[in-house]
Amino acid sequence: MDEQVKKSRKKRNPREHANLFTVLTFLYTFPLFLLGNTRDINESDLYETYTGHKASILGKQSQILWQEELDNANTQKRKPSLLKVLVKILGWDFLLIGIAVGFENFIAQPCKALFLGGLIGHYAKKDCSGFPSYLYSLGIIVSTLFCCLIGQPYLMASYHMGLKMRVVCSSLIYNKILKLSPSSLRKSTPGYIINLLSGDINAFERVGFLLHMLWVCPLQAVLFLYLVWTKMGVASTFGIGFMVMFIPVYVLLGSILKKYRLKVSTRRDERIRLTNELIQGINVIKMYAWEKPFAEIISTFRKLEVDSMKKSTYLKGLFTFNEILIATSIFITIISSVLLNDAFEATAVFITMNLFFSLGLTVTTFFPLSIAVLAEFRVSLKRISAFLQSQEIDFHTKSEDSESAVAITSGFAKWDEDGNRNTLTDINIHIKKKSLTALIGA
């Protein structure tokens, strides 16, 4: 037995002892790539779970914090917030990712554009020595290197954060399942729980990075507008104004997308619940040859679900007009400058194009995605939080000195939690130890 345990024990995860340089450059993954280049990777080659991702650690921590949140909510007479639990566990991770995102978008990218403009402007002069060009070139290289060394690691960190959120919520859901009351189990079908674990939790994957775009985009637009203004003058407001004009449109689309996302989840839950009930009663359905009528019912629910999914996908497709929007904004800026008889140089055009492409990627790609992800995140958080607040089994302490094996005093019960009347009322029963007791009748 010990030999089997030793054989099944995986190698230590190299991320555990990786230094800052190997983390930024992902060099700790290089041995695995070398191994994959020589032969196919099998299960024994995989590493053990990274300590920061283990459910035994995150699950225990989240369970303690969630219980504290429930107690505080009962004391303050408010609804418990799952978001507060996630912030307590992953707040620092989210803050560090935000610092890295801000450094790249507010320092590295503008500096790269300004160094490029300075290099072009230097060669446009009649008397151009080599030393300033070396400095501008070095600035372009360093700023680009910073974008690479910061951009990819914080994207990886955001996915790590999303994975931690999935582990936390999965652990809370699992522990909740073990304590659900019979009435809650009737509502929470296996299909509904699987939908929470597979569909809703997947919305957390990109939250760590994309939610920062909600504050980066407006501030970056103001900063880049100032930089372009210094080069192109009043004409810059027309181009950036055209780009920013689509932000309210994307916000509106995001709110509509949230409604369709909720419809998709609700209709999927209803379809899965109905399918589960049909499978449980398949013998009766087969006996009376009711396959076709019930198949049509399930097909109707499926069509409603697919219809909501189609509309949601169409809305997401509207978020992909980034290249057209960027090119149009640059065109409007240059044409406006020509019509206003403003003199501009090639340096200003190159700086404007570089800044517009950086801003356009944020405004037309990341910002709309962040709105869509925020909508899905709020819906998923609401559904998971509602499940975690389901009624639990009422555990009572049992006295060892009691003469009765089972004792019920003034008991009541109902099978439907939402029902107004109890099914059983004023039940009193005391069953002695080592006695045979039978309930007769229905």
UniProtKB/TrEMBL annotation:
Residues 113-375 form the ABC transmembrane type-1 domain. PROSITE patterns: ABC_TM1F. GO terms for molecular function: ABC-type transporter activity; ATP binding. The chain crosses the membrane at residues 20-36, 85-103, 134-156, 209-229, 235-257, 318-340, 346-375. The keyword Disulfide bond does not apply. GO terms for cellular component: membrane. It is a multi-pass membrane protein. InterPro entries: ABC1_TM_dom, ABC1_TM_sf, ABC_transporter_C-like, ABCC_6TM_D1. CDD domains: ABC_6TM_ABCC_D1. The keyword Nucleotide-binding applies. Keywords: ATP-binding, Membrane, Nucleotide-binding, Transmembrane, Transmembrane helix, Transport. It holds the Pfam family ABC_membrane. It is found in: Membrane. This is ABC transmembrane type-1 domain-containing protein.
